[in-house]
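pasting for ref
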Amino acid sequence: MVWVVVGSAGGTHADEFHRPQFTIYRTGSPIKIDGHLNELQWKSALQISDFHFTWYTAGKQERTTAKMLWDDKYLYVAHVCQDDWITARCREHDGPVARDDCFEVMLAPHVDKPNVYFNIEWNVLGAWVDNHRPDGPTKPRAPKWDAVGVKIAGQYVGTLNDDSDQDERWVVEVAIPFENFSAVAANTPPKPNDAWNLNLNRHGGDTNLQYSQWSPGDTPRPAFHTPHRFGRVIFSGQTVPR
């Protein structure tokens, strides 16, 4: 499998924005969440390879690629993050994951309610943070919302929290139950051709702090809570080729 990435430096002006779209295929069979991405389904799945460095100023633009699949129970997310200096210390749920090198999915599961969204953020150790914004990004998040049944597993090549040497990459595989979004989504699980708004973000780390994302934001400073700039995913009824 070859992972290819095209990076973009700088922001995108509002009148130039074209919402990116991605097709999520069905898995055909469950995926083992172990961080290895060695299932045939992952090898055949479509790939997001153009992560935008929306607020780039200096430093190495580290490559990120991501894939998504689904079945009747889970949305599956997998990503590979090239990283010369991997930071990962948090191990507890709802801890300071954002200080580590981390990855995040933001989901608005009803396109007619684009400001009602959720976000789940994790590091390579499997620590994660979850939030729900029922009234948009400028209102307080929902109190005590915890996603249930989330599975996360990560692998890395390098040494954690040691910037005296250079690392290679970290890889994480995640399964998120659709039942977490049943109060908002039109259908859970989705029906074929259902659409959600969604974004993928990467940030954090002690050295060479990263800010990159699938669908570019439009704020002067790093801010991922911009649901009007999320991309669009379509849940295909077709099983991923094997």
